[in-house]
Amino acid sequence: MPVILQGLITILIGVGGCVGYFYLSNLILDRFIFPAKGENIGRNINRANAVRPWLFLFPAMFVLGLYLVYPVVGSFVRSLYGRNPNEFVGLGNYISLFGSSDFQTSFFNNFLWVIIVPAASTFIGLVVAQLTDNLSWGNLAKSLIFMPMAISFVGASLIWKFVYANDADIGLINAIRAMLGFENPIDVMQIPFWNNLFLMVILIWIQTGFAMVILSAALRGIPEETIEAAILDGANPWQLFFKIKVPQIMATIVVVWTTITILVLKVFDIVYTMTGGNFGTEILPSYMMDFMFRDDGRATAIAFVIMIVVLPVMIWNIREARKEMR
Amino acid sequence: MDNIAGTKSSLMWATHLSVLFLVLLWLIPTIGLFVSSFRDRDQISESGWWEAPFAVELTARGRTAADAVQDGDVYVITGNIYDDPEARSYFPGGGGEIVAFGTSGRAPGEFPAGERVEIGDGETLVVNTDGTYEWRTPEDPGDRGQRVYFAAESPPNFTTENYEQVLTADNMDRAFINTLTVTIPATIIPILVAAFAAYALAWMDFPGRGVLIAVVVGLLVVPLQLALVPMLNLHNSIGIGQSFIGIWFAHTAFGMPLAVYLLRNYMAGLPRDIIESAKVDGATDFELFLRIVLPLSLPALAAFSIFQFLWTWNDLLVAKVFLPSDDASKVMTVKIADDLLGSRGGDWGILATAAFVSIAVPLVVFFSMQRFLVRGLLAGSVK
């Protein structure tokens, strides 16, 4: 059976199944389990209404529980076992991880990524948002800077290969070097330490648009009076921006910053496509993929390290959300 | 606010220029990919894409004819080097002006065009800029012409050859269909499931609602790396294995926290009056959801489906883990990252084209639905 047909059938079964599930489960609840008639009509209606939310929630909670909650436990348990799933090693995987120099490199690199990429994307995004704010062609400019958001990390990596290529006739950087009179092309992907920064540029290129769109909306939301008052008091454009506007959108800046931070901890595609983790560019997600399919114990241990790094952001997110609901 | 005090026209110019600069900086890499995908392989390796509109100097080789005319005691062979099929094959866009020529592969551009030179054994050769040559040799050349290397201007040559190759050969067409097969169900199914859950979390009263919302917010940031090993093992043990069914489930689940979160936020913002008056009129929750809340939530549904579509289309990690690694089920990102970059590392034309094919659909979706996307982003993160 052609795969596309299989896909179409799945859509039908999936969509039909979902609609059928919700419709039928409601019907059964109202008609048969707690029918809204007979002597217990009042009690039945109340009971049906107490059950119904769980009918609505069940499919979502089921997949969430199975694919996101269970793995937190499942991964941790698996990480206590060695390559062989029956051989219990306790914290052995973690101990050997922390002792390995590859892990230390990827942890350090990941640290650099988490510091630099969100900072740079948010900063450039904020600058672009401010600059385009009252520009006649601002929307066009924003749309073009936003565009890389739609491009896959693999596609973006390929695009940047045409910038970084080790050949003055293909790579833009080497072409510029050749124009400045340098003799031999260099492979920027092999310069220790700096190659990490060149890889980060790709993600910054992708994420700046996201930061810009959100910050631009936040800038528009600043009450006009505060700005007018500052101008009347003689604030120059710099003061206006840094002392009046930025403090008022600080909350949004923090949201953008954390969102990009979380993303950085998940992205393995760029390193995988550009260097394959060679030349000292490994980061945790790509390091994990080195062990995937080969040593599940190690792979889950690395995944759990990522989870622990993310944990503070998660707690902070939940606290913010609860504060808002009250 | 254009003319308020404090905005100077010189500053305005600086703004225009710096935005222009940034936009160019952002666009140039993509333009490079786009231009390269239409260039001929030989041209890509000879000159950068930024020189694409200009002629390229290519070195080629050919052989002269061998039908000699005797002139005294020398044999004279004349003709045009572009008449030789081998020489012509280097210039699919037509041969340009010849700059230099030579007789050995080591020095293909030894002599400037138009100059008569000794090439040993008393032979002389001249190749003119238009390709005509005259070869004088004291001995009968028999049926073998003289080898000629030459450097010529090759006019810019834009072809769709790369696209033909990518879309018909290399299994890329298959990968395109596979990507679609993964993407469409993985976009549609989570929306439906999430919409019901979001409605329950926004408008139904039950104990534990607050906790569930907090759980969803928490799950938003769980790294999906955690799920890879346990879920693949589970898939294997229940018989799904690495398959399309498995990846549909996986994408549905990984998109679920964002879907529920976005939709709940949006639905909770719908006017309370409408919902309550419908309830007073006797609408059940099911009818209320289907007839009122769902239609009103269309912008949020659109926003999420764009996200989910872009995310599943562009995904590499989930596809690498949950799909088998044979050609029959590779998606485009895997195909490019694993096959093309590995075996065709040097074929830049094919690489550029494959990348462009894979980003074309998301770009179309992006530019046509940008409004919804922006709205969705804002609903998710600006309070």
Overview of the structural elements:
The complex is a heterodimer of chains A (326) and B (383). Chain A is mainly α. Chain A folds into 2 domains: 3-79, no CATH class; 94-325, MetI-like fold. Chain A is built from 14 helices and no strands. Chain A is globular and about 95 Å long. By secondary structure, chain B is of the alpha+beta class. Chain B folds into 3 domains: 9-51, no CATH class; 56-154, no CATH class; 163-381, MetI-like fold (Orthogonal Bundle), CATH 1.10.3720. Chain B has a 5-stranded antiparallel sheet with strand order 2-3-8-7-6, with no helix packed on it. In chain B, helix 9 runs antiparallel to helix 10. Chains A and B meet through helix 1, helix 2, helix 4, helix 5 and helix 6 of A and helix 1, helix 2, helix 5, helix 6 and helix 7 of B.
Which key terms come to mind for this protein?
heterodimer; A: mainly alpha; MetI-like fold; 2 domains; 14 helices; 75% helix; 0% strand; globular; B: 383 residues; disordered N terminus
Summarize the structure.
The complex is a heterodimer of chains A (326) and B (383). With 326 residues, chain A is mostly helical.
The secondary-structure class of chain A comes to: mainly alpha
CATH superfamily of the largest domain in chain A: MetI-like
Give the total of domains of chain B: 3
- Give the CATH class of the largest domain in chain B: Mainly Alpha
- The succession of helices and strands of chain B, N to C, reads HHEEEHEEEEEEHHHHHHHHHHH
Number of helices of chain A: 14
| Percent range for β-strand residues of chain A | under 5%
Cross-sheet strand order for the largest sheet of chain B: 2-3-8-7-6
Secondary structure: elements and pairs:
The complex is a heterodimer of chains A (326) and B (383).
Chain A: H1 3-33, H2 41-79, H3 92-99, H4 101-131, H5 138-146, H6 153-164, H7 172-179, H8 194-220, H9 224-232, H10 237-248, H11 250-264, H12 269-274, H13 284-291, H14 296-325
Chain B: H1 9-37, H2 41-46, E1 56-63, E2 69-71, E3 74-80, H3 85-89, E4 98-102, E5 111-112, E6 117-118, E7 124-127, E8 132-137, E9 147-154, H4 161-168, H5 172-203, H6 209-219, H7 225-238, H8 244-268, H9 272-280, H10 285-296, H11 298-314, H12 317-322, H13 332-343, H14 348-381
Subcellular location (chain A): Cell membrane
Family (chain A): Belongs to the binding-protein-dependent transport system permease family.
Protein name (chain A): Lactose transport system permease protein LacF
